[in-house]
Amino acid sequence: MRPAIRRRPFLPLFVTPAVLVAAAIVAAMAAILRYSLQAYVPGSLDVGGFTLENFADLGRPIVLRALRDTVLICFETALITLVVGYPVAYALVRTRSILLKSIILVTAVTPLFLGEVVRTYAWTVVLGNTGFVNATLRQIGVIERPIQLMFTEFGVIIALVHVTLPVMVIMLAAALAHIDRDYERAAQSLGAGPVRAFLTVTLPLSMPGVVAGFTTAFAWTFSAFATPQVIGGGKVSVVSTLVYQLGLSSFNFPVAASLSLAGLVLALGTMWVVRRAARPLEALGGH
Amino acid sequence: MLSKAADLSLPARPPGTSASPRGTPAVRLDGVVKRFGAVTALEETWLQVEQGEFLTLLGPSGCGKTTLLNLMAGFLEADAGEIFIGGDLVTATPPYEREIGIVFQNYALFPHMNVAKNVGYGLRMRGVPKREIARRVDEALALVKLSGFADRSPRQLSGGQQQRVALARALVIQPKVLLLDEPFSALDKNLRGSMQVELKEIQRRLGVTTVFVTHDQGEALSMSDRIVVMSAGRVRQVGTPDQVYRHPQDRFVAGFIGDVNRLPGRLEACAGERATVAIRDLRRDVEATALRDCAAGAEVDVFVRPDHLGVRPAGEAGSLPACVAALVYQGSHIDLYADLADGGRVLVRMPGQGALATYAPGTPVGILVPQGGLVAFPPEP
Fold this sequence. Notes:
The complex is a heterodimer. In chain A, 76% of the residues lie in helices and 2% in strands. Chain A is mainly α.
């Protein structure tokens, strides 16, 4: 090793911001942890002495249901986003027309540019009983009475898919772009039609991207707040909305803190399980 | 071989006259054209690959050789003309129905399958029974000397081994044509030579029609039955390696195949098949074909191979005055660079070691221009 390589003058410059961010996160987490271990004093913003009762409170049916629904909603959202996003990412990577590429990219990424609240209220317009979806379906005579989309889990999932899609498309596109086109050509020259070439070569090779996209979508959805709050309208209770309710409506900071921690543990745990389960899939595309 | 002689009269062979003494050609291109936007990647091309032939598409990058290969494979659609494989019209047939085998430049072995699965892929796509697949994969691996590698992952193989797997995978489906897209370019030089010999051996043994794309004229000369020399989207010449090397039909071919010297000359007379050119005060005979449009007295470029030139003591009759510029030891031979008195540098390739002592740089010499082996073309416009 030459000494010139060992000396990295820029290192402190690069590491400092990361350290600051990490310190802020650690401090916030420590505060939450502290709150979760202190007693709730009704009618006061101050907290009492050390207790484990807040965690016992998590065993209440309403909390357990919220935890379960959160995982289910995140799972379904990630799955639907994957199914919808894959063809978009594929088209994005494979189309030769620059114009079409730009159109796909802009359309797919736009949800990221809209604020969460703006986007969510737009969905209330679309999903409402007199909204775009119901009006259109009634106009063409598919339904007589409006279907309830607002304030349902299904409505929440639709809106969550919309905001998760950009992340999924970008991650899948990155994975697909890494797959040499010659693999597909080789498959075709060996007698595989486009569908079979895709199923036997491209899809397995894109598995690492699929797994990464799925877990990211899952985590992305887990932290969503405005969407379940507004579209769910109190009828759909997930971890984030329940924390909000407990913390900022009831001012029960300690239980809100313990529920936050429980949510974090649940999210990490589920993602760990998903990654574990997906390991054989990922190995398919290990190249 | 009548057909080969006839091919020398390219570029245009009229349609319908492609009857071949060896029966249906393996591949036939009738007036195929390919454009990318405003750029014509391949101008109207008439070409025929005979059964069992090893045909090389040779040219610099961007000459249209890869376009031509992709048209045969079906990865590109022709803008005009028809393509036949084994007598069947395939112009509009997708690649997966063309019964072709391709070895890609980067081999494109499926990284998520082991060697046996890679080789058996084409057979699985054809619905061949499992036991027969196993047998034929074994045979194919034996053919490329990779028995015992069936369970390896492509990642665990060297470049040469990967290439063998790619070859086995392409051959196991018994393709009507084997297409090779610069398969040696990723190998190091020593391995390249032995793989060339081996590929040629396998090709000859199986008698599989092969179209080989390369920019390496050495590869083309050593492996091919016939070479198609291409440049700027056009076929310049089709012929055996010897024909292309010794009787280039235009100045591109003369300059591209092998090392060559260009000497300034003057056309003296053109009579029938032969023409006389003067290089300084030396009169030499050349083929007249390329000079038909030139008037007597016109300037021409005379091309001569480095190994056809000789070095003599200065002032010897029949030689051009020059001065040794550099000597380069090449092992089996010596390259002598000399500056002509009239300007311009020539390369003389000499066997033997004696020259190293005899011709030190700066020595005045005479460059001996042979009577035969010269070709002349009009100067570049």
